[in-house]
Each structure stands twice: as structure tokens, then as C-alpha cells.
Specification:
The protein contains 9 helices and 5 strands, in the order E-H-E-H-H-E-H-H-H-E-H-H-E-H. It is an alpha/beta fold. It has one domain: 3-Layer(aba) Sandwich (Rossmann fold), CATH 3.40.50.300. A 5-stranded parallel sheet has the order 2-3-1-4-5, with helices on both faces. Helix 1 crosses helix 9, helix 2 packs antiparallel against helix 3 and helix 4 packs antiparallel against helix 5. The longest helix is centred in the middle third of the chain and has 25 residues. The structure holds thymidine-5'-diphosphate.
């Protein structure tokens, strides 16, 4: 089973995935991974995408690099784990490209879907979108001493990302479950585990 986690900045996905993996590991083989990255080549591409020293990355280049890192990650990590009957929990996947690149960067759904055809052929069984007002999300990460190139985007960009996610969740209702990210992390974890159990 392939499960992805989506959301804007500061939605607590990383902590959630660790908590959920710990519970599922009592009964199942679980692999946790993330995008962009997840394998050494994909992590090298991640550095080009997120490193603030590359301010000149254009929207098209950004989308193509993300698609390239996703293709590598699929072949090296996700597909082998699924073939071995493992549960894959992935922090971000194609819906991030739809919310950030297609919607917030205005590249359009058709273009982003076309360059991500390999991922479209390998969609998750289930996706949790943690919906949170970016004012709250950004205030949660405000204490960090390092910001990546996308964290540094203006507030309006993060508002557009949220609109993009809500649009994506509408388009793929059969796969995406919207979770209220203003609840406590314990509540969110409980809700997600219930949904996963229903699908297992
Ligand atoms: P990361 O540090 O993993 O952020 P977070 O902890 O918020 O998940 O950085 C990933 C950044 O890359 C994040 O700002 C979202 C962005 N991103 C895209 O714009 N498109 C994509 O397809 C993916 C996978 C990530």
C-alpha cells in the first residue's frame, strides 16, 4: 500500500509520519521516505531545487527537476518496496507538484501532469492532505534558523499553495482525504490511523 502525506509548510507531516510508522510497524513492514529526495540521486537533485544559493531556478526548471527526482525515487525506492509488499509512507508526492508548480507557480495542471506521467501511472492508494492556514503553519516554522528556497517565498505564495491543494483534493476525491491541521497532532494521528486501518 502506497500512502502519501501532503500539506503546506509547518503542518507537522514529518512528526506525523514518524508516529504513524511506529504504530504500523507493530504489524506491518513499513518504509518511510520523502520528496524531493528519498534516494541518493534524488537527494542530490533536491539540493539543486531547495538550496537558497540557486535563486535563479525558473518555474519550469523547478517542475522538471522535481519530476526527475520523483522518477528516480519511484524506481529506486517506492516501486521495489511495494513489490516486496511493504507499506510505503511518503512525505509529499505528485500532489505537491500540482499545488506548488501547477497552481501556485501557474504552470497549469496539464503541463505538470504530462511531465509526471510516470508518477500518474503509479498514484498512491491513499493521500492525506493536512489543511492548515499558512499564517499558523509559517509561524510554526518561524523559529528555524535555516529556510529553504521555497520556505522563503512570500506569504501570498503559501496562500496560493493552500488553494491549489484544496483544488487538487476536489479533483481526486476518491484518493485524497482532507484533514483539519489545526487539531492536536495526537488527534490527527488517530484520525489517519483509523483511515489507514479501513483500507488495509
Ligand atoms: P521540505 O523541507 O521537505 O518541506 P516540508 O518539511 O514542508 O515538507 O521541502 C520541500 C519543499 O519543496 C516544500 O517547500 C515543498 C516543495 N515541493 C514542491 O514545490 N513541489 C514538489 O513536487 C515537492 C515534492 C516539494
Amino acid at each position: 500500500m502506497f500512502i502519501t502525506f501532503e500539506g503546506g509548510e509547518g503542518t507537522g507531516k514529518t512528526t506525523l509520519i514518524q508516529g504513524i510508522a511506529a504504530v504500523l510497524r507493530n504489524q506491518y513492514n513499513v518504509v518511510t521516505t520523502r520528496e524531493p529526495g528519498g534516494s541518493n540521486i534524488a537527494e542530490a537533485i533536491r539540493d539543486i531545487i531547495l538550496n537558497p544559493k540557486y535563486q535563479g531556478v525558473t518555474p519550469y526548471t523547478e517542475a522538471l527537476l522535481l519530476a526527475a527526482s520523483r522518477a528516480q525515487h519511484l524506481d529506486e525506492v517506492i516501486l521495489p518496496a511495494l513489490r516486496a509488499q511493504k507499506i510505503v509512507l511518503c512525505d509529499r508526492y505528485i500532489d505537491s507538484s500540482l499545488a506548488y508548480q501547477a497552481y501556485a507557480r501557474n504552470l497549469g495542471f496539464d503541463f505538470v501532469l504530462s511531465i509526471n506521467r510516470y508518477a500518474v501511472e503509479n498514484l498512491p492508494n491513499l493521500t492525506f492532505y493536512i489543511d492548515l492556514d499558512p499564517k499558523i503553519g509559517l509561524s510554526r516554522i518561524a523559529h528555524r534558523d535555516k529556510y529553504d528556497r521555497l520556505d522563503q517565498e512570500a506569504f501570498d505564495f503559501h496562500t496560493k499553495v493552500r488553494e491549489g491543494y484544496l483544488e487538487v483534493a476536489k479533483r481526486y476525491q476518491e484518493r485524497i482525504i482532507v484533514i483539519d491541521g489545526s487539531q492536536t497532532i495526537e488527534k490527527i494521528q488517530e484520525q489517519i490511523l483509523e483511515e489507514i486501518e479501513k483500507h488495509l
